[in-house]
Amino acid sequence: MMVFILLACLGGVLVGLSRQLNGRLSISTTPLIASFWNHAVGFAVLTCLGLFVGGLLPAGAAAAPWYVYLGGPIGVVFVAAGSWAIARIGAVNAALLIIGGQMVTGVAFDYLSDVPTSFWANATGIVLIIAGMTVSRSRRKTGGSR
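RESULT FIELD:
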């Protein structure tokens, strides 16, 4: 189990590093150029890894429904928007916004897909996320940094 925890932590560090690099590149150029380079490098690395390890084109990929391929275009928009946001609101606020948005969207997807959930647990989680973001913003505005 410890290996998976360490892999998750490494993934989080790499995502944070990627966001920082994209934000910095976005400041120097534009968010679309930062998104282009993010996807170009990712495509090259993952293609090489797929060729080396195998499984670049898994069996049944052509038979998958069309909507499973929407992740690519959504990812392009997400990376470009993230690069734009980091340049304007900072990396920490952008990370909070992304994490909060993912959690709230996950709850919404659970309700839309009729997954059995506890309304009060979900409502409490959303309220805590919004409260945490509000506290973070209010501390920054008042200049307190305890």
